[in-house]
UniProtKB/TrEMBL annotation:
Organism (species): Desulfobaculum bizertense DSM 18034
Signal peptide: none
Protein name, entry field: Arabinose-5-phosphate isomerase
Domain CBS: 208-266, 274-330
InterPro entries: CBS_dom, CBS_dom_sf, GutQ/KpsF_isomerases, KdsD/KpsF-type, SIS_dom, SIS_dom_sf, SIS_Kpsf
Binding residues for substrate: 80, 86, 219, 272
Site, Catalytically relevant: residue positions: 57, 109, 150, 191
Family to which the UniProt record says this protein belongs: Belongs to the SIS family. GutQ/KpsF subfamily.
Top-level taxon of the source organism: Bacteria
GO annotation, biological process: carbohydrate derivative metabolic process; carbohydrate metabolic process
Residues holding Zn(2+): 80
Gene3D superfamilies linked to this entry: CBS-domain, Glucose-6-phosphate isomerase like protein, domain 1
Amino acid sequence: MTPKAQERDWLTLGRETLDIEIEGLRRVRDRLNGSFIQALEIMGGCTGRVVVTGIGKSGLVGRKIAATLSSTGTPSFFLHPVEGAHGDLGMLRSEDVVLALSNSGETDELNAILPALRTLGLKVVGITGNLQSTLASLSDVALDSGVEREACPLGLAPTASTTAQLALGDALASCLVTWNRFEKDDFAQRHPGGSLGQRLRACVQHLMHVDDLPTADHTLPFAEALVALDAGGLGALAITDASGVLHGILTDGDVRRMLCSGTPDMNVAVEDVMTSEPLCVRPDVTAAEVLDIMETREVTVIPVVDSEKKLVGMVHLHDLLGKGRLKFSA
């Protein structure tokens, strides 16, 4: 490392970069207004595809936005403006919507194709840092992605501005998930090769715990059941009879609520304090179905039983999501 490099406080510089980008996002967030709703209505009402276009760094951001839209229920693809000007506009239909990105709003290659797109009957949503720009004037609605400064020390490389564009694209995509009533099952169908898609499509019998299940006989004293609950490591203890039929469940939450309401009697049988007739599932249900149940009922562990209600396994939320192996961001 050179002496000059050693003189720099790299952590401070790195934090300053992030601070500038965070500051830019705050400004974009605070300027969200009715134009965002208009853009959402245009994109949500689209019966064709959302065609994302831009050039340079904005084009790279546009490719990511198009990928996010497509994977979350809004059919989308990226169109390079130059290729569009040389024949690729033939892929477009009047029912499509264009999402055009340019920080300056004065990108010649992009603005050159916008009048043709309007002639074809397509609506245009612009994302630009200049609401007085040509792009803004050629758009049906323009979203303000302007930032006060770039995070690049030279003030030249698109950094905070491209982060703002990407964040606005994510905001639109997130809202469209709800608009389109897009669910986890839909996500799984569009990600058959991804880790999350594969897990959500799998039957719970392939993901559940089957060995050394945390169980206790329904006649066991509460004090001993607590020890078994702690040793089980799942945050829940299945309460069964001698034949293995599920009678109830005791969870960390149950114990916490008992302690908050007073000192529990440690000598009573666990069946006197357990949750009777607990929520349970069959082995052939999909992970996606179980995940929906967990979210609706606000639980993290569910016993799995056979047709005779005998305990055959237990499934934890982390089993469905890969125990930290899955990544939800690029």
